[in-house]
């Protein structure tokens, strides 16, 4: 999630993005089955999902509902203390995610429309057959 977070910080907080032709920047992902340093005990089964939730909680404002609708299993995920991140956003008077969607990512919804809000969420049970749909 940190790759998204740095972009939101730059765009929403008035930073600058410089293109340096000779620069080499990358992201290293651990290979499946890698047995290196184990994660700390507080990291759940998916540190990647936990990082996404942290980013969504800090930067997405009312748009976070769309993330949780697409990944409902993350709603109960403990993601740790984000108060310093929220304070950074407040102290630097960062713009809203709505601003980001309207000014920076204005064309994203033409390619990936926002789904309608859920009216109800849950399971339906057929009492005659004891089946869950």
Automatic annotation (TrEMBL):
Q: Which InterPro entries match?
A: Nucleotide-diphossugar_trans
What are the names of the required cofactors?
Mn(2+)
- This protein's UniProt keywords: Disulfide bond, Glycosyltransferase, Manganese, Metal-binding, Transferase
Give the UniProt record's GO annotations in the biological process aspect. protein O-linked glycosylation
Pathway, per Swiss-Prot/TrEMBL? Protein modification; protein glycosylation
**What protein name applies here?**
Uncharacterized protein
| Domain of life of the native organism | Eukaryota
Under Gene Ontology molecular function, one entry of this record is: metal ion binding
DNA repair: present as a keyword of the record? no
Q: Name one GO cellular component term.
A: Golgi apparatus
Q: Which PANTHER family match?
A: N-ACETYLGALACTOSAMINYLTRANSFERASE, N-ACETYLGALACTOSAMINYLTRANSFERASE 7
Does the keyword section mention Magnesium?
no
């Amino acid at each position: 999630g940190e790759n998204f977070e740095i972009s939101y910080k730059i765009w929403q907080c008035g930073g600058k993005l410089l293109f340096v032709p000779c620069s080499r920047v990358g992201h290293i992902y651990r290979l499946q089955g890698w047995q290196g340093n184990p994660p700390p005990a507080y990291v759940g089964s998916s540190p990647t999902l936990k990082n996404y939730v942290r980013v969504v909680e800090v930067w997405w404002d009312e748009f976070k509902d769309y993330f949780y609708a697409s990944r409902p299993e993350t709603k109960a995920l403990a993601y740790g203390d984000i108060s310093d991140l929220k304070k950074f956003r407040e102290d630097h008077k960062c713009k809203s995610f709505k601003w980001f969607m309207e000014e920076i990512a204005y064309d994203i919804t033409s390619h990936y429309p926002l789904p309608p809000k859920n009216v109800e969420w849950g399971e339906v049970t057929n009492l005659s057959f004891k089946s869950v749909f």
